[in-house]
Amino acid sequence: MPVEIKLPQLGESIHEGTIARWLKQPGDRVDKYEPLVEITTDKVNVEMPSPFAGVLKELLAAEGDTRPVGSPIALIETEAAVVSAGQPTRAPALGPAGSDESPVVEPVARAAGPAAPAEKGAGGARLSPLVLRLAGEHNIPLTVLETLPGTGAGGRVTKDDLLKYVAGRAAEGPAPSQAPAVPSGAPPAGDAFIKLTPIRRSIAQRMAQSKRDIPHAYGVIEVDMNAVVAWRESQKVGWQRGGTSLTYTAFFVRAAAAALRAHPIVNASWTDEGIVTRGAVNIGIGIAVDEGLIVPVIHHADQLDLAGIAKALDDLSRRARAGRLGLDDIQGGTFTITNPGVFGSIWSMPIVVPGQAAILATDAIVKRAVVRDDAIAIRPIMHLGLAFDHRVFDGATSMRFLNTMKTWFEGFRDGR
Q1: CA torsion angle for 126, 130, 132, 138 (degrees, to 10)?
Q2: What is this structure's pTM?
Q3: Is there a catalytic annotation at residue 363?
Q4: Of these residues, 15, 138, 300, 390, which one is catalytic?
């Protein structure tokens, strides 16, 4: 009996995902826990494993479609022993890190009777939603689809068949009647149009949501980083020999974790019923990749020393840039740090991640002339900027939080 496979919960503050790529097609055999589909959020691409063994029957969401969590995205014909008719079945846990939540996959009885109205391809085989969407994107009419030779089961036209046709048509050059469609408001000659990637679209949606829903406020403080800079310079070669990079981000995470423990209201989130303070200090780190920005999470950062944080950062950064992050790596963040200082920024105003109360921007460490003991001194100075949800706490709290970090940096001694 076919069962629905639903879009899993991909994180506490994530309510939807985009189908980036189906790894299986209708008719394919799928083993339990075998990767089935790549799903994109504003943070990362992740592979969703199949909760069942069986044969994939139908795709209910095409590549590029954005669906809310819990919505059905595919049907799979399971083996008789896997599902009892009418009884919900648990898929592998894909909920927030540390939770035991799993998306419920419920059997779906398909009503007897005629098949759904249908576009037919070569040999009368039904066209998949993915093929129909791709055909629309490339301005291929149904009359042309019906003439394409299909290599799928029963002569079905597959995605590869369609893309092969598109590639051949491009090589021949567009016919006058097949001029490429342009988006509304298309740029004039000399301009360029950049199609949105799933990650870029998801980032845009989430950031727009944040600015619509969250009343942002900001606090900025100036920090003398002399103690940190001097200690790092004396230690970084030894750390590198030990196989770990000692980046400034490790110091930022360590200081932020201590400040979050001292000011738990900053490690919180807003709900209509009240404010939720988080028991765990899970710090997300913004990492720039070619497709945009992803935010892997260091879980329980307050329980790690500087070396532990540095190793976690090194591991997450490597896997993020190699596209090898898993669901656990991006779930459960309670606070975020973004580091535009690596690109030379000296003053930043970041956007709060939905579901969190604040985000910290760490700007470039720059030598400046400052007054120390009534004398001019040259010191490495950095701005710390906190963007926060003004519903959760006020400016005084933001400055107390930033001053706690300032005290940690300026009083830094011997790796602590």
Answers
A1: -140
A2: 0.65
A3: no
A4: 390
